[in-house]
Amino acid sequence: MVQTSQISSPDQAIKPGATIGILGGGQLGRMLALAASRLGLRVHVFAPESGPAFDVCTRHTIAAYEDEAALTAFAQAVDVVTYEFENVPARTASVLNATRVVRPGADALAKTQDRLVEKTFLNNLGIPTAPFHQVDDAGGLARGVAQLGRPSILKTRRFGYDGKGQALVREGSDLAVIYRSLGAKPCILEGVVPFVKEVSVIAARGINGAFAAWDVCENTHDHHILSVTRAPAAISEQSAVEAMEMAKTIADALDYVGVIAVEMFLVEDKKADGAKVERLVVNEIAPRVHNSGHWTIDGAVTSQFEQHIRAICGWPLGSTRRHGRIEMTNLIGADVHQWHDLLGEPGACLHLYGKHDARPGRKMGHVTRVFPET
Ligand code: AMP
Q1: pLDDT tens, residue by residue, 308-362
Q2: Reduced to 3 states, what is the DSSP secondary structure of residue 75?
Q3: Which of 94, 143, 190, 308 reaches 20 to 30 Å from 15, CA-CA?
Q4: pLDDT tens digits, residue range 266-323?
Q5: What is the pLDDT of residues 174-214, one digit of tens each?
Q6: 331-342 b/e (C-beta count within 10 Å ≥ 16 → b)
Q7: Which atom of ligand 1 is nearest the CA belonging to 219?
Q8: Ligand 1 pocket at CB < 6 A
Q9: Which of 86, 113, 153, 182 to mutate to test the pocket of ligand 1 (most atoms within 8 A of CB)?
Q10: How big is the CA angle at 294 (ends 358 and 374), to the nearest 5 degrees?
């Protein structure tokens, strides 16, 4: 864990009893609302349809993110606005911002909604990413493949998640067909990073620039969906420090307020003498609380959800110290039917999101196990 010293004054702070406005009504909003309510805050959720956060909030608004009258009424009813997903339309954020501060701010959204903008931003900070090439048509894809080779990965610039909006360009793949399969939208082509592990840093930055990161965690995916997170990641101390420094560099550059997640690939290069050297490559930034940080609810002094609320309220950040070695497993689709057995397992901390339909691929809950460290 890393934590910088902080000076924070109650005068600048939002007070207990105030109302947090959250855009988005999914499980991240639900866990944010639960953390806020423990700290004596009220929560008003704004979402286009009912979702898991509605069960635990004080008020909700069901309206489109383009409904400016509803957005203005919502902003007037809350003390600060935040969000649980990064695809908040720029216009939505600016309508809200006319009345209430939106945290994290517009720059965080602008830099993380578009993969091309995000990778350019990172490289300008000296942070390595996969090699990439802008693709605006099938000819651009051919030029990208000539530069990056096969296999490579074509991704839509916007609105991709859990592997959606991605296609692998293999030997013999028809480039025009692949480009059309992603809707002929603006894309980037990425070189394949030969990673040995995927890791993430979950960190927070306060309004006064204070920074706190939890220990780096290690993530495994199943069909592109996060399956298990372990903390701490089994990586060198030097890589762990570098990963946290990268997260701090990014958060500082965005003048960020709130919890941020930075997903990274760990690559092992072999030197001439056979020794292995670790190297980190940033894959993605999420300007929000993140699935690979859910373990912090049961496994750390301060959870990512509480920390986000503390940051956006201008409160001191909490300690990110772990309680032990952690394993968090997502309950996807039918996995949720294990709920009864999990409740019977000593030490298993079960979280269910209150979703009714256990469709394949749907995140229904998670379970965290904390093992004492000797
Ligand atoms: P993303 O939606 O960009 O996070 O990608 C989903 C998953 O695809 C990642 O977690 C990786 O497992 C894999 N992936 C994405 N981009 C690359 C890349 N450039 N090289 C290797 N694997 C990748």
Answers
A1: 999 999 999 999 999 999 999 999 999 999 999 999 999 999 999 999 999 999 9
A2: helix
A3: 94
A4: 999 999 999 999 999 999 999 999 999 999 999 999 999 999 999 999 999 999 999 9
A5: 999 999 999 999 999 999 999 999 999 999 999 999 999 99
A6: bbbebbebeeeb
A7: 10
A8: 130, 153, 160, 163, 190, 192-193, 198, 221, 224, 283-284
A9: 153
A10: 125
Q: Which CATH class is domain 2-104?
A: alpha beta
CATH code given to domain 197-371: 3.30.470.20
Using 50, 70 and 90 to split pLDDT, how confident is the model at 5?
low
Q: What is the mean predicted confidence (pLDDT) over 158-183? A: 90
Q: How far is the CA of 179 from the centre of ligand 1 (A)?
A: 18
Closest Cα to residue 197, out of 144, 265, 149?
265
pLDDT of residue 6 exceeding 80: no
Name the token pair of 12. 């600048």
Q: Where do the CATH 3.30.1490.20 domains begin and end in the chain?
A: 131-191
CA–centroid distance, residue 298 to ligand 1 (Å) = 28
- Average pLDDT on 124-129 reads 98
Start and end residues for every CATH 3.40.50.20 domain found in the chain: 2-104
Give mean pLDDT, residues 205-227.
Answer: 97
CATH of 131-191 among 3.10.129.10, 3.20.20.70, 3.30.1490.20, 3.40.640.10: 3.30.1490.20
Which letter, b or e, does each residue of 177-188 get, where b requires 16 or more Cβ atoms within 10 Å of its Cβ? ebbeebeeebbb
Domain limits, CATH 3.30.470.20, in the chain: 197-371
Could you tell me which residues come within 8 angstroms of residue 98 by beta carbon, excluding any fewer than 6 positions away?
Answer: 72, 75
Q: In the numeric block, which tokens belong to residue 332? A: 């996807």
Q: Give, using CA atoms, the residue closest to atom 2 of ligand 1.
A: 163
